Amino acid sequence: MNTAPSPAGTPADLALPVTDPALAARLRERMEVVEEALTAHAVSRAPYVTEAARHLLAAGGKRFRPLLVLLAAEVGEHPENDDVVTAACVVELTHMGSLYHDDVMDEAELRRGSDSANARYDNLVAILTGDFLFARSSELTARLGPEAVRIQAETFARLVEGQILETVRPEPERALEHHLEVVAGKTGSLIATSARYGGMFGGASPEVVQALTAYGEIVGSAFQLSDDILDIASDSVESGKTPGTDLREGVPTLPMLLAQASADPADARLVELLGQPLTDDALHAEALALLRAHPALEQARAYVVDRAAEAKALLAALPEGSVRSALESFADIVAVRSA
């Protein structure tokens, strides 16, 4: 999930749309505690390892996943439970570890406006640093008890499976299903666990925890899929991203896959373009224009809007109030940014 960076240690702007001033103040205060804890958990006996492990932490980020843990905990009877902060650190350290591995797989040079770890150090250091952060996350999970260990193990397996599947070229008839599996594994799984942990350790009822988990899975995947749409439809000035970046790099996205599945003879040129490298500027511009005009773009938008509505409906299990409103507003944002 792509979010704009914010300075490390200063969570003044929350990554979720919280309009209740009292709730927002509590979350900012708790996020400061999480931020301090994350810095402490990234310490190794070897200064060089500490430096590498803190590299991406220092680059900042919206800290969406730990914030979701804290917000979900607010529907429980004891949101101030120390285990909530521990769980918030678990999901963020897991996410951070995955970013180190992601950058190696993508051969990325930048992450959050700074040098990626593999660019600053090398691939081996980046991979092992990611492993170190996963180990720290596992240590913290053990403090939360056997059920949390089981959930974390299942989540981590799904995340890694998603990363591996991303490197596999599926059969053409399974391309769309495959992409959705990748997104669910890489993004939906950990966001689902973030919401689940918050409900669990905040003392919410099993029904509410189940609803939060399902909400996180769906809205997390939908948010990532909305990035697919923005890659094609966005204006570079508004999004800060060059349109068609994924298209140029041959990264599968929801609109591309829907267009490629077309059997309409009128789409033959677009299908031909999408089946080849688009490093040539003229071919890239042609493919981008055709894809923007293709019904696949609206189909992708409709899919994301439906998923966001599905996630929002699950929140009926939560008591009415500022927490539910914030989660509903986030689902609305997912729908709007794809519309």
Automatic annotation (TrEMBL):
Its cofactor is Mg(2+). It comes from the Bacteria. Gene3D superfamilies: Farnesyl Diphosphate Synthase. The keyword Ribonucleoprotein does not apply. Pfam families: polyprenyl_synt (PF00348). Keywords: Magnesium, Metal-binding, Transferase. SUPFAM superfamilies: Terpenoid synthases (SSF48576). Belongs to the FPP/GGPP synthase family. This is Polyprenyl synthetase family protein. It comes from Nocardioides nanhaiensis. The lineage of its organism: Bacteria, Bacillati, Actinomycetota, Actinomycetes, Propionibacteriales.
